[in-house]
Inverse folding.
């Protein structure tokens, strides 16, 4: 007898607030790792990861780089503005941004950020008009690097500090454009990467610029009614070739993080994995047909979030909920600066 369709409430759970990690572990690879591949969970430390993979396996990383996307400023009327830059429009000085202000700035007005530069408001944008289209006076990446703040997630309660510049960034970050870190990759340090290479585990990369939508709650009960946010990604031809070679030698494809999985499975929606760059608004829920990823390394996600639905689709709903109950009972640290989990595909 089949179960009724999943609703958002199926992905809810009670999380003690003290388990929400406010700061990273002292060392990246000292985080805990819940090995959830078998029926029973095994408690490990992240630096054990190389021994859990086999020679010939392939780790696929997201090499996006978090930009200092949060700005503080004021409208011409004097009212304060907080901006989160969602996207820099390639080849221009224009950006799409979420703005928080007592009254929305009007098209043609200006916002002065950090008492350093003015941005012109061009109008509203986004699928529901919820963002603002701004024009900066010069290269947005350079201005953000100089005047912006690390866009820590809403559940981290302290303002960004000097250590966050380093720790809310992977050690291999390369392509600027994300406003949230691919957090499963934050656990990797040079020692773990060297141990993986020595074991014969191959590596490849994709780029997916994580947007602020990754933190947006699902506000409808029926999954089919949720509108997923869109993110830009690229799968290089070299990564497609690396995955084909891994398949040929009998190895497993291990996605480092849900963002990597989203990129790979988006690129394979036509049936075959295709190289290239495009947008994805893929919404992975139980019943999804996975074509590329065999194992998933991921952090622990927010209750009722699209990422809870994704991991449940990947490893089985009942299994994932049991793992989460175990993690809470054992005091694992949750969310961006929290601990990690290793899952195997069960669908």
């Amino acid at each position: 007898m089949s179960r009724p369709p999943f609703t958002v409430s199926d992905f809810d759970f009670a999380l003690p607030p003290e388990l929400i990690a406010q700061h990273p572990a002292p060392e990246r690879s000292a985080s805990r790792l819940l090995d959830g591949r078998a029926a029973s969970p095994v408690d490990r430390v992240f630096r054990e990861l190389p021994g859990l993979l086999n020679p010939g396996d392939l780790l696929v990383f997201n090499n996006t780089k978090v930009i200092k996307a949060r700005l503080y400023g004021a409208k011409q009327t004097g009212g304060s503005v907080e901006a989160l830059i969602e996207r820099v429009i390639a080849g221009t000085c224009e950006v799409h941004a979420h703005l928080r202000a007592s009254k929305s700035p009007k098209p043609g007005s200006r916002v002065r950020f950090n008492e350093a530069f003015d941005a012109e408001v061009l109008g509203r944008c986004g699928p529901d008009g919820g963002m603002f289209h701004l024009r900066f006076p010069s290269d947005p990446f350079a201005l953000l690097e100089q005047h912006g703040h690390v866009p820590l997630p809403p559940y981290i309660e302290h303002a960004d500090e000097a250590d966050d510049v380093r720790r809310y960034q992977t050690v291999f970050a390369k392509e600027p454009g994300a406003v949230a870190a691919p957090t499963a990759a934050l656990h990797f340090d040079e020692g773990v990467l060297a141990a993986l290479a020595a074991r014969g585990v191959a590596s490849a990369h994709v780029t997916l610029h994580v947007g602020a939508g990754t933190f947006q709650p699902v506000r409808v009960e029926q999954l089919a009614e949720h509108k997923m946010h869109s993110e830009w990604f690229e799968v290089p031809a070299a990564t497609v070739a690396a995955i084909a070679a891994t398949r040929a030698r009998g190895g497993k494809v291990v996605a480092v993080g849900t963002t990597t999985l989203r990129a790979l499975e988006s690129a394979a929606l036509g049936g075959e994995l295709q190289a290239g760059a495009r947008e994805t608004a893929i919404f992975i829920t139980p019943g999804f047909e996975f074509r590329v990823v065999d194992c998933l390394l991921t952090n622990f996600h927010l209750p009722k979030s699209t990422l809870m639905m994704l991991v449940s689709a990947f490893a089985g709903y009942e299994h994932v909920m049991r793992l989460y109950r175990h993690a809470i009972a054992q005091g694992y640290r949750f969310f961006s600066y929290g601990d990690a989990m290793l899952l195997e595909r069960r669908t």
Notes: The domain at 8-66+164-344 is CATH 3.40.1780.10 (QueA-like). The longest strand covers residues 80-88. The mean pLDDT is 95. The chain has two domains: 8-66+164-344, 70-149.
